[in-house]
């Protein structure tokens, strides 16, 4: 049984790094095996590195923090597993230099996913490590695409009693954008428009194609029964910068062209400091239409 457990945790470690792009030793420990000593996680990672499946870079400016990533070979092996089949690896995922240069944003995205994972464990909700999927490509036509920092799948615990017992809970999906103040508030707010276009996007038939018999529908409906809610995580600045970006998002939300989108899709923003201190399920989220309000990210639509 121990060998089976070791093999499954080895496999999960490779799968996580192939999907997440990067993680520190501590992050990997909390994702994989928070119930054991961190030395066991270090040994596991070193073993997988010796097998050529993962590698690391060391950040001297951060107390020699080790940042792990899947090698091209490791990602190729993982891509054959059912749980990762069909998923594109994040950009620059196997390049040592790309990992080192993108470590600030990459580790912030991993830390955000870890916050949801740990919160689900505390609450008894269902959110597994591979339910956090960075950089899912959603085409908009003309070479444009919406690529959220991550797509989150999350099932909240059942709260309603039925004739057969407690219900299965609520299945939630969210597009997550982690903003570290590397772009101006206006560019951040412009992402609202991109998601609104994705919400409405119906691909045009190719030139010369016969008119389809059935009415074409938005492309997102092929993947999701409901359009995922949109969560902005604001990091990299103090309270004044957070306030400025919330104001920019609020101003964008007043655009009449976005009214229909915002009526159907919850769009919420929270500070990274609040997320890490209180957990994602706490009422730390501000609806972009009403930044003075505080709600849970799982609040119902409408």
UniProtKB/TrEMBL annotation:
Pfam families: Replic_Relax. It comes from the Bacteria. This is Replication-relaxation. It comes from Streptomyces toyocaensis.
């Amino acid at each position: 049984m121990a060998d089976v457990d070791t093999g499954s945790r080895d496999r999960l470690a490779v799968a996580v790094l192939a999907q997440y792009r990067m993680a520190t030793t501590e992050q990997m420990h909390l994702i994989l095996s928070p119930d054991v000593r961190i030395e066991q996680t270090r040994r596991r990672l070193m073993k997988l590195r010796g097998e050529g499946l993962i590698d690391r870079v060391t950040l001297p400016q951060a107390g020699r923090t080790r940042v792990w990533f899947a090698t091209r070979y490791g990602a190729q092996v993982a891509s054959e597993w059912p749980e990762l089949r069909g998923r594109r690896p994040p950009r620059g995922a196997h390049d040592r230099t790309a990992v080192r240069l993108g470590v600030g944003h990459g580790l912030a995205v991993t830390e955000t996913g870890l916050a949801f994972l740990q919160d689900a464990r505390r609450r008894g909700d269902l959110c597994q490590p591979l339910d956090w999927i960075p950089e899912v490509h959603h085409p908009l036509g003309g070479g444009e695409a919406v690529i959220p920092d991550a797509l989150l799948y999350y099932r909240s615990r059942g709260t309603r009693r039925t004739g057969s017992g407690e219900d299965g809970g609520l299945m939630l999906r969210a597009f997550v954008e982690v903003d570290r103040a590397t772009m101006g508030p206006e560019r951040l707010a412009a992402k609202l428009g991109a998601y609104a276009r994705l919400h409405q996007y119906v691909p045009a038939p190719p030139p010369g194609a016969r008119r389809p018999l059935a009415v074409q529908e938005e492309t997102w409906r092929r993947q999701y029964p409901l359009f995922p809610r949109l969560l902005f995580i604001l990091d990299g600045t103090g309270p004044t910068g957070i306030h400025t970006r919330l104001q920019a998002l609020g101003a964008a939300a007043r655009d009449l062209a976005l009214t229909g989108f915002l009526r159907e899709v919850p769009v919420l923003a929270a500070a990274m400091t609040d997320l890490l201190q209180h957990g994602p399920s706490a009422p730390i989220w501000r609806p972009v239409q009403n930044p003075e309000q505080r709600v849970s990210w799982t609040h119902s639509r409408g």
